[in-house]
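Worked problem 6 (solution included).
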Amino acid sequence: MTINRYKIFDAVFKSGSFTKAAGQLHLTQPGITNAINSLETEWGFPLFIRSRTGLELTSEGKHMLKIVRELLQSEERIIQEVNNINGIETGTVKVGVFTSVASFWMPTIIEIFQSRHPNIDIELSHGTYEQIKTRLLDGELDCGFVKIPLSSKRVEVVPLINDRLKCIISKQHRLAHKKIISFEEIKDDPIILPPEGGDIDVKEIFDKYDTEPNIKFRLIDYNSIISFVAKNHGFSIIADMVEIKNPNIHKLHFKENVQRHIGIACHPLKSPATEKFINCVQEWVENREQDL
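Solution. The predicted structure is:
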């Protein structure tokens, strides 16, 4: 069937290997190869470039992959709609998450969602704001947490929260006697940041005040950043949703209005499972905000 060849095309791209795709789909490698060859013959152009470093999509392959993914999403939506009409809940929701949402929101949200919808699977894909947006537009994700406004009319966005950004310092820091500071007071101090791409919120603040950050370390996760700050190696700027339990951390609010707007984006024609997941997220966030 053609739809199976489309699934194979998508799987080969995701895995980067015919062998890995065969294992994931429980097919033989010759079967995978034949499916890709038949698509290339039917369409009249190659889909992949084979090289020593692996498989890469041709420009034609990139174009067709977007269309194929739209079709696969439509097929999944049809299956879910039919099951929904028959009173059966099934499906998979592919969700894009950035670090703070993955660490501090998703464990509870997934627990609540799967207690209500045990037959709907959630697949998480971690990335930066830009990576999540790209995967949404490429049809790789059903929905994703994003920073808004989002510069695309191809997806719809449900606003969730205005998340304030706060400054964290060690209790030994020279400003530890304060609760509120201006950005000017600390902008020249050594700062500890996540890797490039995960520091967009902080970079925007420094850009706004036409200042270059004095970067001392880049660390991959919040726990590491918090530990280094607690030892007075520098300060950091993190979102209010990030939970801090280290007793050696002192939190400061900025006099300036420093915040990020968070929403969840999805395709306009979303599946029943995706709609249920988004409704669950909205409900949880609203209850959380009321409890704060």
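Discussion: The first helix runs from residue 2 to 15.
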